[in-house]
Automatic annotation (TrEMBL):
Protein's name according to its UniProt entry: 2Fe-2S ferredoxin-type domain-containing protein
Domain 2Fe-2S ferredoxin-type intervals: 6-105
Cited Pfam families: Fer2, RACo_linker, Raco_middle
GO MF, one annotated term: iron-sulfur cluster binding
Lineage summary: unclassified sequences, metagenomes, ecological metagenomes
Organism: marine sediment metagenome
Transmembrane segments: none
Length: 371
């Protein structure tokens, strides 16, 4: 049987580890022997339910679900292919069948929360001083109150105050405002005696707050890699980094490289929505973690900037990327885009701006120049 087991391959993602199955031990012990530390309060005894793994390929050749798995895994978990690593063994009665199955016979995804190993995702590098000129700016205003002699509407009075504040930047006929913000103006304007802070994207008002919140002006920059994602929370006024977080890209559940993910989309169009959903979830998790580091609300983030290769760029936007993988390797769009955050389900200020930097050509994206 030993010679036969040498033909059985197990791939672990997203950490890109491949092993040749050699003997009848649990997946938990296989990971331990590889030096891959995973979460398990009970040390593999089947009493904590923490060592959840996702079987992406080969489920039919594993031993049946155990009592602990029926206890700790929900029905939805079981249907999706989740198992407990400490309870999962390759069925020895099916070894002969496995030898003739295409390799790798098993593909197992290790969720980010399961892994304890430090994969040392690069989050720092060389930097150089640049002159800041953010697209999003905040201005504190003391707006003139209306009167019978000057019954000027709320928005017009805010425009007038902005022109006084920044005469070189604004002209009355250029100032616009989000429709959603209009409904909040009456209350916010009168909450603190007409003292407000306007958040502008160029000449367009995207937010109005009572009082002076000029200092609370944040943006977040993401580098979406095929395997890893890094996010930097930045104060847009001074360029200071207030938080950094990274994680493994959960899209690896669909394939380690972009070609595999393109194939998944080509074979089933719904996979594009699934890939988009998992990367948005990853980004939102990073947003939450960096906001905790800075002790701010995600609603104080008014802009997100995204770089990544062309396939990651398209999937993030929910745009079908399959033609990038076919000669002559044509993307749907090359130039940079500005999109409202709520349209992409990104958990920053709902009318905040999401800027996707322009890609270059083929598979070469903005991550190449966005350094």
């Amino acid at each position: 049987m030993e010679n036969k087991t040498k033909k059985i391959i197990i791939d672990f993602e997203p950490i890109s580890r491949r092993i040749v199955y050699s003997r009848d031990i649990s997946i938990f012990k296989i990971l331990a022997e590889l030096g891959i530390s995973i979460r398990s309060i009970c040390g593999g005894g089947g009493t904590c339910g923490k060592c959840k793994i996702l079987i992406q390929n080969g489920n039919d050749y594993l031993t049946p679900l155990t009592t602990p798995e029926m206890q700790y895994l929900t029905k939805i978990d079981r249907e999706r292919g989740f198992r407990l690593a400490c309870q999962t063994f390759i069925d020895q009665t099916k070894i002969k069948l496995l030898v003739s199955v295409n390799k790798p016979q098993f593909r197992i995804f290790l969720p980010n929360k399961l892994l304890l190993e430090d994969f040392k995702i690069l989050t720092t590098g060389k930097s150089r001083e640049i002159q800041l000129n953010p697209f999003i700016k905040k201005y504190y205003l003391e707006v003139k109150k209306p009167s019978l002699e000057e019954p000027m509407p709320d928005f017009e009075r805010i425009k007038a105050a902005l022109i006084v504040k920044i005469p070189k930047m604004l002209k009355a006929n250029k100032v616009t405002i989000d429709f959603d913000v209009l409904n909040t103006l009456p209350e916010i304007l009168r909450k603190d005696k007409h003292k407000i802070t306007c958040t502008l994207m160029n000449h367009h008002i995207i937010a109005v707050e009572s009082g002076n919140t000029e200092k609370e002006n944040y943006g977040i920059a993401f580098d979406i890699g095929t395997t890893t994602i890094v996010g930097y929370l930045i104060n847009l006024n001074n360029g200071k980094i207030y938080g950094v977080d990274s994680k493994l890209n959960s899209q690896t559940a669909f394939g380690e490289d972009v070609i595999t993910r393109l194939t998944a989309i080509k074979e089933e169009s719904e996979n594009l929505n699934k890939l988009n959903a998992v990367v948005i979830s990853d980004l939102n998790e990073i947003i939450l973690n960096t906001c905790r580091q800075a002790n701010i609300s995600s609603a104080q983030i008014y802009e997100a900037t995204i770089v990544g290769n062309s396939v990651m760029h398209h999937i993030f936007l929910g745009i079908n990327p399959i033609n990038i993988g076919l000669s002559p390797f044509i993307p749907v769009i090359q130039k940079g885009l500005n999109v409202k955050a709520y349209k992409l389900n990104l958990d920053i200020y709902k009318s905040g701006n999401v800027f996707t930097a322009p890609i270059i050509a083929g598979f070469v994206g903005a991550d190449t120049i966005g350094v």
